[in-house]
């Protein structure tokens, strides 16, 4: 987790050891230098943009730091299923950054687990700083419904439309896993617990920023009473050395 690697220089690491933060107070004084809570309460998530806001991001009702992990308390209130999408602040990320956590190429590694919650999902992703999608691509890992297997995806434009390479694992989220994506010129490779899931050659070529997007209703919505947690034990980020 800590330190440079062959070919990679570490620029960010977080293990949430500075202390706990109550629900609704993240990042708070302990973590505000390195984190943003992401989208404000009430921002529709990917599915909510199409469903009139029946699912969305509510960091004040979802995020906390508990027992040395960043915690998502996934649940529904008043018919709205709630997630959150915190983002790390990477210092000196780029010589001319449009965003504080912008990188062109990088290695991103997380140790995480989750409860099996049908209808909720992770899509921890690299999103283009330009906002032009699918032209400038998208990289997602770990991705998947929390009751299904973990996979990685690389989105790209083909004939003016979204196309994607999907690389599956055979693992569920209910055990602790280390998920790593390596984004280099001409290739994106996904690793789960040190094992390669494969390579996509459709690598984005413009700066991207990391969003730990945790949301719902993309492959069916969660049951109204469903609730559970996603836990991030640590995250580490490197740039090409």
Describe the structure.
The chain is mostly beta strands and 241 residues long. The protein has a single domain (20-240), classed as Jelly Rolls. It is 5% helix and 52% strand. It is built from 3 helices and 19 strands. It has helices at residues 28-31, 48-51, 59-62, and strands spanning 8-14, 35-36, 43-44, 55-57, 63-66, 69-77, 80-83, 87-88, 102-103, 106-114, 120-128, 138-145, 149-158, 161-172, 177-184, 187-192, 195-200, 208-216, 228-240. A hairpin with a 2-residue loop joins strand 15 and strand 16 (187-192). The chain is globular. The mean pLDDT is 94.
Q: Can you tag this structure with a few keywords?
A:
mainly beta, Jelly Rolls, 6-stranded antiparallel sheet, 11-stranded mixed sheet, 241 residues, 5% helix
Query: What is the overall shape?
Result: globular
Number of domains: 1
Broad CATH class: Mainly Beta
Q: Fraction of residues in helices?
A: under 10%
- By secondary-structure content and strand pairing, the structural class works out as mainly beta
Q: Any idea what the radius of gyration is?
A: 17 Å
């Amino acid at each position: 987790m800590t330190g440079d690697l062959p070919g990679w220089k570490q620029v960010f690491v977080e293990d949430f050891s500075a202390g706990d933060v109550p629900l609704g107070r993240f990042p708070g004084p302990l973590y505000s230098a390195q984190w943003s809570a992401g989208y404000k309460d009430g921002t529709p998530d990917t599915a909510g943009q199409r469903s009139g806001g029946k699912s969305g991001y509510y960091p004040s009702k979802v995020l906390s730091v508990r027992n040395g992990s960043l915690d998502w308390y996934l649940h529904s209130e008043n018919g709205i299923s709630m997630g959150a999408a915190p983002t790390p602040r990477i210092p000196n990320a780029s010589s001319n950054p449009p965003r504080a956590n912008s990188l062109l190429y990088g290695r991103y590694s997380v140790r995480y687990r989750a409860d099996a919650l049908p209808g909720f999902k992770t899509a921890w992703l690299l999103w283009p700083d330009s906002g032009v999608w699918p032209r400038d691509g998208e990289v997602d890992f770990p991705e998947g419904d929390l009751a299904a297997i973990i996979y990685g995806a690389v989105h790209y434009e083909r004939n003016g439309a979204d196309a994607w390479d999907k690389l599956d694992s055979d693992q569920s989220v209910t055990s602790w896993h280390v998920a790593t994506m390596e984004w280099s010129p001409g290739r994106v490779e996904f690793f789960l617990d040190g094992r390669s899931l494969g390579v996509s050659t459709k690598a984005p070529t413009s700066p991207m920023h990391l969003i730990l997007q945790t949301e719902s209703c993309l492959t069916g919505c969660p049951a109204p009473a469903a609730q559970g947690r996603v836990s991030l034990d640590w995250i580490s980020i490197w740039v090409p050395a």
